[in-house]
Design a protein that fits this description.
Order of helices and strands: HEEEEHHEEHEHEHEHH
Shape: globular
Strand order of the largest sheet: 5-8-7-6-9
Helix content: 25-40%
Strand content: 25-35%
CATH architecture: 3-Layer(aba) Sandwich
CATH class: Alpha Beta
Number of strands: 9
Radius of gyration: 17 Å
Structural class: alpha/beta
Length: 261
């Protein structure tokens, strides 16, 4: 165990986190609002020990106070498309639970499918479609599964959005494996299946947290229109640029949420 991780562990044990947050693509700047008490690289974090190789993911575990609440932040995530097995991708969730977190808020950058979800929109997840498994069509329909998204946390996000006058949509998110963006035909199929935004994270993580008994919420920053819905090709630089532009609005929303939590 490295000195940096030992310091973080001691502080977390002394004051367990009220909330764990995972910051998605281009959203690491949100952690600037944290009154930082401890920080450690994923390379020094037991169970992770790998840095994320995707641009826009810092690869650090942070602990401190935000809006007077103790918060554990995973600044960046590991993805299946990077070549990590699912157990490694989900290790952040298990580690957060081991460190005492019982409430989880995941963030991500996503492509908008629904007509009103243009770049810069913020969307709270109310359900998801998990298309990361090779036999996903054999699994129960979402209506037959327990919804892992907490009505209480969703209500707090709504109230926080009203309090800070930030427009907040709600919708159904679809997770795919990546690394390539979807084709226009796939997006049309996803829309027919009820998906309103699409990305390459979150659904599997939410289910892992839910199975551990954690109360869960998730927030998407819509950084682009999905494939076939925009005249320009999809580009990761656009994703990062749009996410960075929304950091003040998203930061205000998250701070309002923490005040209410």
């Amino acid at each position: 165990m490295t000195p940096a991780y030992a310091d973080l562990l001691a502080r977390v044990r002394a004051r367990p986190p009220l909330l764990t947050m995972v910051l998605g693509s281009g959203l690491s700047a949100l952690a600037e609002r944290l009154d930082l008490w401890a920080s450690v690289s994923y390379l020094e974090t037991p169970g992770l020990e790998e840095a994320t190789g995707v641009a826009g993911h810092q690869g650090r575990l942070l602990f401190g106070a935000w809006a007077g609440k103790t918060v554990l932040i995973f600044s960046g995530r590991l993805h299946f498309y990077e070549g990590h097995p699912w157990r490694k991708v989900l290790q952040q969730i298990h580690l957060a639970h081991e460190l005492g977190a019982r409430t989880m808020l995941l963030t991500n950058a996503a492509g908008g499918i629904r007509d009103d979800l243009g770049p810069g929109s913020l969307m709270a997840l109310k359900d998801h479609r998990d298309w990361t498994r090779p036999d996903w069509w054999r699994r129960p329909l979402p209506a037959e599964q327990a919804n892992p998204y907490s009505p209480r946390l969703l209500a707090l996000l709504r109230q926080a959005a009203r309090d800070c006058e930030v427009a907040l949509a709600e919708g159904v998110y679809a997770q795919v494996t990546g690394p390539s963006y979807e084709t226009p035909a796939e997006i049309r199929a996803f829309r027919a299946w009820g998906a309103e935004a699409v990305g390459m994270s979150t659904a599997r993580e939410i289910m892992a947290a839910h199975e551990l008994g954690m109360e869960c919420a998730a927030l998407s920053c819509i950084t682009n229109r999905a494939a076939g819905l925009s005249p320009t090709p999809l580009d990761h630089h656009e994703v990062l640029a749009t996410a960075a532009q929304q950091r003040l609005r998203m930061g205000a929303l998250l701070e309002g949420f923490l005040i209410l939590l």
